[in-house]
Every structure is written in C-alpha cells, then in structure tokens.
Amino acid sequence: EYCWGACWGREGLPKKIRSLLNLAMISCLNRNHELKLHVKGAIRNGCTKDEIREVLLQVAIYGGVPAAVDSFRVAKEALGELEKEKPIRA
Description:
Elements: H1 2-7, H2 15-28, H3 32-44, H4 49-62, H5 65-85
Helix pairs in contact: 2-3, 2-4, 3-5, 4-5
C-alpha cells in the first residue's frame, strides 16, 4: 500500500518520470526480474523505447557497464513481449 499508493500516488512527479527513475535504480541494483516488470510498466506509463534506452545508457556511466548490458538484455525481452501484443512507440 505504501509503495503503490502513498509513493506512486503523490503528485510531485508524473508516473512517467517515476518509471524512468525506477528503471535506473533497479538497473543499478541488478534486479533483473523487477526490471522486466518495470520496463513494461514504463511503457504503460507513457515512456518510449528511446527514453528507456537513454536511461539505460545513463546507467552504463553511473551504475557500470555490466549492469547496463544486463538491463538492455532484459529490456529487449520485455519490449519484445509487449510488441507481440501491439506496436510500441520508439
């Protein structure tokens, strides 16, 4: 309730920005299972594939290349699964 209600429900940041922040943090923590879920959620919250790519490139610099490489792989899988349902904006 606290995470999804109190935190995500706050008005200080749009859900799209919260999603991008989560992608960066989860990538740096190497939580690939969670990352896959949050990539899909980011798309649903209005993020584009280009924005997700930019976040993961930022992860490479500040979180390390190995974390970014793993995150790109997981994001590609998640986006591929979503693409089967319907096309996604770049």
